[in-house]
Amino acid sequence: QVQLVESGGGLVQAGGSLRLSCAADGRGFSSYAMGWFRQAAGKEREFVATVTWNGGATYYADSVKGRFTISRDNAENMVYLQMNNLKPEDTAVYYCAADLTTAQNMRDMKGRGVNYWGQGTQVTVSS
Fold this sequence. Notes:
With 127 residues, this protein is mainly beta. It has one helix at 103-108; strands spanning 3-7, 10-13, 18-25, 33-39, 46-51, 58-60, 68-73, 78-83, 92-99, 116-117, 121-126.
């Protein structure tokens, strides 16, 4: 069992940066693949990034590759998403996700069937 709480969203101008944080409350955090997904108004949920249970590998959507970085600190039960060079099309609610699966599977399934989700944090990028 794990509970996830996101923070760090807000309003930023295009070209700016934000860092999202996801705090996990539960045992076995280091056993979970973690990911970030987003959903813009009127659109379906979109994969953003995932990281393996030990942080050994990361995966990114093409739309954010080179701009976003996912990382985790298992000692602190934290996952981060550093977002640089933000664009208006990045505007969405961002969700932290966790599951006892592989990071690749979480990516490929687009979050379908993921057991644990945070409440979401709004990111708005102005042009």
